[in-house]
Amino acid sequence: MSDEIFPVPDKWAETAKINEAEYHERYARSLTDPDGFWNAESQRIDWIHPYETLKDVSYDEADFRIGWFLGGKLNICANALDRHLEERGDTPAIIWEPDDPETQARTLTYRDLHARVCKFANVLTVNGVGKGDRVTIYLPMIPEAAIAMLACARIGAVHSVVFAGFSPDALAGRIEDCQSNIVITADEGLRGGKPVPLKANVDAALEKVEVGRVIVYRHTGADVDFNPVRDVWWDDAIEVAAPLCEPETMDAEDPLFILYTSGSTGKPKGVLHTTGGYAVWASMTHEYVFDYRPGQIYWCAADVGWVTGHSYVVYGPLINGATQVMFEGVPNYPDHSRFWQVVDKHKVEIFYAAPTALRALMREGDEWVTKTDRSSLRLLGSVGEPINPEAWDWYHRVVGERRCPIVDTWWQTETGAAMITPLPGATALKPGSASKPMFGVQPALVDPEKGTLLDGATAGALVITDSWPGQMRTVYGDHDRFFQTYFSQYPGYYFTGDGARRDEDGYYWITGRIDDVINVSGHRMGTAEVESALVEHPLVSEAAVVGMPHEVKGQGIYAYVTTNAGTDDNDELRKELVQWVRKEIGPIATPDVLQFAPGLPKTRSGKIMRRILRKIAENDMSNLGDTSTLADPSVVDDLVANRPQ
Ligand code: WT7
After folding, report:
1. Whose CA is nearest to atom 11 of ligand 1?
2. Cα dihedral sign for 415, 420, 423, 429?
3. What interface predicted TM-score (ipTM) does this complex get?
4. For ligand 1, which residues put their CB under 6 angstroms from it?
5. For 596-615, how does the pLDDT look when each residue is reduced to its tens digit (9 = 90+)?
């Protein structure tokens, strides 16, 4: 199945913005004439002042720096809203589809959105937020999330969106790390008919860290605690807010947002993106990857709490004047047809989602899909994790009725937007392959041990050899960590953390993380984070966490836990520990398997041999490899014998 190649449909080759010949020509130009290429692409943005220097980048530790469009001045919010008003002020920007299909959908035109953003920007200012200040946003998938983000961008404040599924502890850590003095939240979120206690979570977080102000949007109308000194209702503040707000003039390299993401070590990193390069990059990739033209109905099903929501719900589509569906709910509520009912209801043409959702729906049978119409669909997208050929085939054959190309977009929080991806009018598709690099992106494979560049059809560690405009600029508050994490392993290159294979046609096949990061349902989880949550439990002395194959999630979380001497390792404690991790980090970190381990396999120098733990988690006992260097090889026998089935 995976050997099959799907050529570009004639109609796409003829009408798409980029056909195959154009792809090759522009890709070559982006590398041989970056000044000419990026000068042309930068015109998609309205600059207050044009840039003077395209790029100033060094990956050397001594003079490490990354900058693009230097000297350029712009406001990204004005690019997303103000400049559309004349031509498409009355065109829907966001069509909000609520969790409950019985609730009325809301449509916000560009004019509506602009008016709300201006007012909310003034609310922020009145509440003491200024240029460069960090604003924490902890909101569900409602238009107010986009409004809050754009309002920050308008006045030059730096937003830090925290996914509404994260726990109070995780929220507190993120507020503390970026020293934000304000949180924007809602009374509750709503997902699959179940309320999410956002305000209560904020209150709990603020027992650990202090902020001066909390702005609360009334979404479900639930009764929530309200601290009259600290808390402000969104609606009350809007009511008295001035309607006009001039967009702040921002430097191309002024920070736009921080988004926390898990790495292989320590606590989550605050990935920082800046303004000019990100604006060009999000807009350009959105236009070419989805072949987007204003008027088309586009739907990216990602949450704004992740980078996909930043680049492909908020900034990319709005800069491009798109009309998009924003969905509050989940794929299986009220039933497994929900995605496709939303497609039909709003006549969605372009649909972009994560493989985990597709796999979950695929298991429920084709009828949930086939009983819907879906004739509006023209293009499908996939993001967040490798899409297995079975899910690809199902997406293509059942959802898209073989009519819709699938763009399997590989990228990362760090890369800002799509890096390796098919273009629908240019790239023949190979199921499971993210295919070819975006303009300006130079992927390469290196030998994981030696760091040498590998040629031709081969596999290795995926690096990017030069900078691109949407590259992250630093880890907030820790520039050295930025260098050490991404540029120290393979000097001169950005290391992605992923492994990949390149075939004879130059197509890239991402094989997954090769560091200690697991990809659970398209979301990144650091094994170290889950481990540190576990060892915080008073009965746990040590923990080791690895990924395991999971039919729906892609990867699941397998935790090995050593308890304090004398502890009774029973099922009740197992459940308690699983709940503990959920509470500490959030439901996405819930261990799928928790095995009590009287001992962990360690080398004589005390290093845990994760390779062995991964094999046991994969139930691949015949490949445990050499265990003779272990301090105590018998612990492996115990783990194998007691692996929960
Ligand atoms: C990691 C980045 C892309 C934005 C959402 C996730 C994996 C992402 C693909 C893909 C194979 C993929 C990688 C990457 N990944 N897209 N199309 N095929 N793997 O962003 O949370 O920063 O995670 O997701 O392993 O490193 P993120």
Report:
1. 386
2. negative
3. 0.99
4. 261, 306-308, 383-386, 408-413, 434, 496-498, 510, 512-513, 519, 523-524
5. 999 999 988 888 989 999 99
